[in-house]
């Protein structure tokens, strides 16, 4: 069997549809009754520059925080906390029961722990020796 490299969104969609069809045999109520999608919340200054934001995606009643970023000058002013609360409110409104995310040791694992996120996995020495990638979740 030969494989070729392709950079094509249509292929991703075909693969996704096939795996969803397969998965629906095992968890039909979740696949058929839980929405999927993406949403972001941002704050802009008077010049239209993004000051902070959060980007999320959801599937099967699970919310994933893709990105959370706050401009350095706004850190320590509860902006990240406001964004996490927005994420939780959105997740609850969509019927999600879990929020999960990834963060590196040099980013914010302890920050998320302050808001009841629990580590459920760690990749040590990733992306390089001395750093780790943490997987965190919160039941809501």
TrEMBL record:
It comes from the Bacteria. Gene3D superfamilies: 3.40.630.30. One of its GO terms (molecular function) is acyltransferase activity, transferring groups other than amino-acyl groups. This is N-acetyltransferase domain-containing protein. InterPro entries: Acyl_CoA_acyltransferase (IPR016181), GNAT_dom (IPR000182). Residues 1-140 form the N-acetyltransferase domain.
């Amino acid at each position: 069997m030969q494989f070729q490299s392709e950079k094509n969104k249509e292929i991703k969609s075909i693969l996704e549809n096939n795996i969803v069809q397969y998965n629906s045999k095992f968890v039909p109520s979740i696949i058929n009754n839980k929405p999927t999608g993406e949403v972001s919340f941002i704050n802009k200054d008077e010049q239209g520059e993004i000051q902070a934001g959060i980007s999320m995606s959801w599937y099967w009643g699970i919310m994933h925080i893709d990105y959370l970023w706050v401009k350095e000058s706004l850190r320590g002013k509860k902006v990240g906390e406001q964004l996490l609360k927005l994420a939780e409110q959105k997740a609850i409104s969509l019927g999600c029961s879990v929020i999960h995310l990834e963060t590196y040791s040099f980013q914010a694992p302890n920050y998320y722990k302050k808001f009841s996120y629990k580590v459920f996995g760690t990749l040590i020495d990733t992306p390089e020796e001395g750093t780790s990638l943490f997987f965190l979740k919160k039941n809501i």
